[in-house]
Amino acid sequence: MKKIFIDLINKIFSGQFWALFQKEVAQILRNRQLLIQLLVPPTIFLMLFGFALNPKFHDLRVGITDYSHSSASREFIEIFKQTDAFVISHYYANQQDMLADLAKGSLTVGITIPPEFDYDIAHRRTVEVQALYDAVDANTATIASNYVSQLVSDYNSRLLNDAPQLARSLRQKVSGSGVLTANNNQQSSSANLQRQQVDVETTVFYNPGLEQSWFIVSGMFGILLTVIGSQAAASLVVSEKEAGTIEQLVMTPASDIQVILAKICPLLILLTIDVFIALSVARLVFGVPFRGNLLLFIIIAVLYFLVGISIGILIASYAKSQQQTQLTAFFINPPLTILCGATTPISSMPTFVQWLTYLDPLRYFVEICRGMLLKGVGLETLWPQVLILMTFATVLLTLSVRQFRRQLS
Amino acid sequence: MAIRPKRIFAQTVKELTQLGRDGLSLTMALFLPLVLLLLFGFGISLKVNKINFAIQDLDRTPISREYIATFERTTKFNIVANGPNVDVPKLLDQGKAAGGLIIPPKFARDFLRAMRSSEVQILVDGTDSNTADIIRGYAKAINSTFIANQRGNSVPPVSLLSNLWYNPGLETLKYIGPGALAITVTLFPPLLAALATAKEYEQGTVLQVYASSLTGIEYLLGKASAFWLVGMAEVLFVNLEAWLFFGLWFAGDPTPMIIGSALYIACGVFWGIFIGRNTQVQSAAIQAVAFTAFLLSLQLSGYIYPVSNIPAAIRWISYFVPARHYILITRDAYARGVGWLGVWFPVLALALLASLFFFFALRKLQRMQVDS
Q1: Are A267 and A187 in a shared domain?
Q2: Distance of alpha carbon B262 from alpha carbon A180, whole angstroms
Q3: How many alpha carbons fall within 13 Å on the CB side of residue A284?
């Protein structure tokens, strides 16, 4: 068994293979356009995606109609200045004007403070403040309403905690009681406050600064390698077809596997360079860490290239011209890139679309990228993904070799 | 230099005949947008569904169980593991949970004691910072609910009355759907126009145009109106599909949408012809269109995340991306329904961009001479 295997390896990597390999390298090096196409986009794409696809919400515009015009309401409004998520864009004299702006989309939230605000606060009655959201963008509205509720509940707890002190100072003024009583008061009230208290200590794993770009950038790795790899492989095969030299390849004593592998190997080397470029851009521009094992990552990346390249060869074996290849790539690449979860989390997608994502090889590679870059986990956690990628690579490679043979005959 | 409508018309007919003969391109132009729309509409979603959540309870007292029950009662979390032996960090590593809660021993004791507060730990997977933020917010809110329930009193000074307008159910499709519609019709009009133009240079048929009495502006208008017609047909189909699958229908006055679409497709077609003239090679034209028309639109139009999230340094580029303006129009047409009052500026911007691209293309085509 082992001997057969070694024989097979020897047969594949014989002198014929090296001759073909040299031919492919020479061909690629001469093709300036392809080289640029392989090496320039990783940098530009990573930067563009990393900067432009930014899930961090800031400067959400708040409009305020304050019918109360009191110091209490102004103090309440202050809460929106505590975070850079909001910016107060305008104060309105009446709600109608604010609603018109909300309708136009120039506001995200409209806050209406009723006239009785300061009276109710002073008398410790609950006062109703109205918050109107422009929910056309459901996601932004959800985030904005989360922020507002947080700010208001912070304000509430601050007011509740301050209230006894406020009452106490009032009482002190009225009764003029001594220092000792005040101290006692304070102790009992703070004891009351401390009872039944739960402090939440939040620890954010993998991305403690919650850097927004890390999610996109770590996911973009896979997209880049798929798009670049499949297109380059496809155009290499098709240009051979267009030039009519593919018949000469059939005439050589080399087997189909050798022909295909010789085509794949130089691309593998170039794509590995791409990985290093992408890793450096991620590290230098976005500060994305690399917490896993670099060698393991490269090996898995090469495995994934095989998937991307096989897709390219498959496309090429069906297409008749460069134009058709590229157009077909438009059919294949958008689904792969959208369903892989690199730009938006898979868990957000509808259930039936989530099922489709299991068919997307890129999904597994994105999981591996995030695992190795951000989480720093290794094979012990990622073996299922690696196994699935291996299956994809074997199936697609076999298919592309078979299809290649068929188009030759 | 007069413009002769008859020649423009002849040019348009010629382009359409040529396109009709190219089976693959025609199928692509009419069929692929329909597939893309479904993909963009359903595949891109930011709705935070139930978040997978793991709980390790080291206390195991009625109070800690009540604390956990408060987490279970919300519809936000999907508890994937719960018990004293749950390894929360490991579940985060494997991606099986996006967040976790660890209740330490003596939680109940500290909770009931005066002068001491009990502590719980929330672990959040920060890989997706957006979801991480949301988990943190939920956890904090649930914690406050628990404390308020236990104390059983405390009237909050301010209660918030929230109203979600235009989209009370917070359906992401209402936001993503109109955006998907805009992005879908972005690709093909410029792509087909660029390919047709580049093909003339690749195959040398442009020399026949040069030799004829056709002027640059007639050539441009003729070609453009052919692909503009194809593009408008695409808009019609895509709108029909959006109505069938996403249930999108005009919320108000449809005229801004109709005029906006006409201008938007014109932008794309002029840009495509400009690219085709410049590259003169079909494969290069595809690459250039894919990058400038499609990727830039996808990234800088505010389709996935609002434009205001883009850093200011590159945000200004988005003003030159027609999709950014068109998305405002489609969103108004299908979700807001304000009409002209709300979207006169995007329509105006599209008109300006269309004429800008028209002059770019015209400048390039006017010479009608073989490059020396």
Answers
A1: no
A2: 80
A3: 9
Regarding whether A47 and A72 lie in a shared domain, the answer is no
Q: Are residues A46 and A73 in the same domain?
A: no
pLDDT tens sequence across A5-23:
777 777 666 677 777 777 7
Nearest to A156 among B158, B310, B331 (CB): B158
* CATH T-level fold of B51-151: abc type-2 transporter like fold (3.40.1710)
Write the CB contacts of A280 (distance below 8 Å, at least 6 apart in sequence).
none
Collapsing DSSP states into helix, strand and coil, what is residue B215?
coil
What pLDDT tens digit does each residue of chain B (372 aa) get? 567 888 888 888 888 888 888 777 777 777 888 888 888 887 777 666 778 889 998 888 888 888 888 888 887 788 888 888 888 888 888 888 888 888 888 888 888 876 677 888 888 887 777 778 788 888 887 887 787 777 765 566 666 676 766 666 666 677 778 888 888 888 888 988 998 898 888 888 888 888 888 888 888 899 999 999 999 999 999 999 888 888 888 888 889 999 999 999 999 999 999 999 988 877 778 778 877 887 788 878 888 777 777 777 778 888 899 999 999 899 888 877 788 888 889 999 999 999 999 999 988 888 776 665
Q: What is the DSSP letter of A195?
A: T
Alpha helix positions (H), A244-255? 246-251
Domain residue spans of chain B: 5-44+170-365, 51-151
Number of domains observed in the structure of chain A: 2
Asked if the C-beta of A135 comes within 8 angstroms of chain B's C-beta atoms, the answer is yes
B147 vs A49, A134, A196: nearest CB: A196
Taking a C-beta distance cutoff of 8 angstroms, is the pair B145, A225 a contact? no
Q: Which stretches within A255-358 are classed as H helix?
A: 256-286, 294-318, 322-338, 351-357
* Yes or no, beta carbons of B118 and A197 under 8 Å apart: yes
Best residue in B166, B188, B282, B324 to probe A by mutation, most A CBs within 10 Å? B166
Query: What residue type is assigned to position A389 of the chain?
Result: L
Residue of A nearest to B153 (CA): A160
Q: Cβ(B38)–Cβ(B252) under 8 Å? A: no
Q: In which element (H, E) is residue A61 found?
A: strand A60-66
Chain Cα centroid distance, residue B193: 23
Q: Of B269, B256, B222, B273, which is closest to residue B7 (Cα–Cα)?
A: B222
Query: In the 8-state DSSP scheme, what is residue B104?
Result: P
CB A153 within 8 A of CB B144: yes
How far apart are the CA of B51 and the nearest CA of chain A, in angstroms? 8
A residues 28-87 closer than 8 Å to B (CB): 33, 37, 45, 48-49, 51-60, 76
Kindly state whether residue A281 falls inside one of the protein's structural domains: yes
For residue B98, the one-letter residue type is: A
Q: What residue has token string 């957000």?
A: A348
Residue A91 lies in domain: 60-191
